[in-house]
């Protein structure tokens, strides 16, 4: 986790609309959802639950059962 520096001020994004605009602006430089989380938390103070609601859900690959003869 990023250590907070009291002398470094970062903008606070708590409104969902502003957070969505930040995600939209950062998606060109983020190559994965992990990069998006990193960029958001390094550049802004965000509500992590609101970010999670905006990010796409990564669903696991289905495990197919073998067919019965």
Structure description:
- With 69 residues, the protein is mainly alpha-helical.
- It is 42% helix and 6% strand.
- It is built from three helices and two strands.
- It has helices at residues 16-26, 33-43, 48-54, and strands at residues 12-13, 45-46.
- The chain has a two-stranded parallel sheet with strand order 1-2.
- The longest helix has 11 residues, at 16-26.
- It is elongated, with a radius of gyration of 17 Å.
- The N and C termini lie far apart (52 Å).
- The model has no long low-confidence stretch (mean pLDDT 81).
Q: What is the spatial order of strands in the main beta sheet?
A: 1-2
Structural class: mainly alpha
Shape: elongated
SSE sequence, one letter per element = EHHEH
- Give the strand content: 5-15%
CA gyration radius, whole angstroms: 17 Å
Mean pLDDT: 81
Low-confidence stretches: none
The biggest sheet amounts to: 2 strands, parallel
- Counting DSSP E segments of at least 2 residues, the number of strands comes to 2
Proportion of residues in helical segments = 40-55%
Enumerate how many helices there are, as a single number: 3
- Terminus-to-terminus distance: 52 Å
